[in-house]
Amino acid sequence: MKRTDWLNTESWVLHIPHHSHARFTGIAETTEIMVMRTGNPRDFAPKMYYPQETPDEDRLHDILNGCANRVVRTNFDKRNAPWSNLVVGEVINKPGKWAGYPPHYHDQPEIYFYKFHGDGYGHGEVGKNVYRVENNSTTFMSAGEQHAQAAAPGYAMWYLWVIRHLDGNPYGAPTNVKEQEWLLDPKAEFWGKE
Q: Which CATH code is given to the segment(s) 56-184?
């Protein structure tokens, strides 16, 4: 596996079942490995998700005057890993833009882990609270808690996102906050809206 940086190259994800072990040996001067775990009694064959299996999705470039345009990479979810109890992916939030906007929520809990270059930072909205997020920050969204993110101008924000499927209630799609849903209309008028 080789990934030169988290912005310009796609990820590698190894998915292994319970009672399995994996050993990684880093050969670069600095190597980072992120581990996501949850209980799952199902047996399945270990699976490597290669970069070419996780294409960049350029989302919401055509609405909100591009203010919520971001790149989403979904490594696995119920579509390609129906045996899993997790959804794993990453987002590249472009400088000065929002992600996960309009604010949304879902029944399943979610974790974000952030990366920035230099002094980069952004803001993570969790419920009615807003947190300054910096390199190696983490936010946690409880079930049903609305959330959205914003990157400071001049700084790209990368974050890993992990959602835990609930028994009998797997994650499928988010629900947008009703009061902000009008923003998704391509003909929405923003200037002078009262």
A: 2.60.120.10
- Enter the pTM of the model: 0.91
Strand partners, 89: 74, 161
Q: Tens digit of pLDDT for each residue in 9-43? A: 888 999 999 989 999 888 888 888 899 999 999 99
By the 8 A CB rule, do 51 and 11 touch?
A: yes
- The 3-class secondary structure across the chain, one letter per residue, is CCCCCCCCCCCCEEECCCCCCCCCCCCCCCCCCCCCCCCCCCCCCCEEECHHHCCCEEECCCCHHHCCCEEEEEEECCCCCCCCCEEEEEEEECCCCEEEEEEEECCCCEEEEEECCCCCEEEEEECCEEEEEECCCEEEECCCCCEEEEECCCCCEEEEEEEECECCECCCCCEECHHHHHHHCCCCCCCCCC
Q: Where are the domains of the chain?
A: 56-184
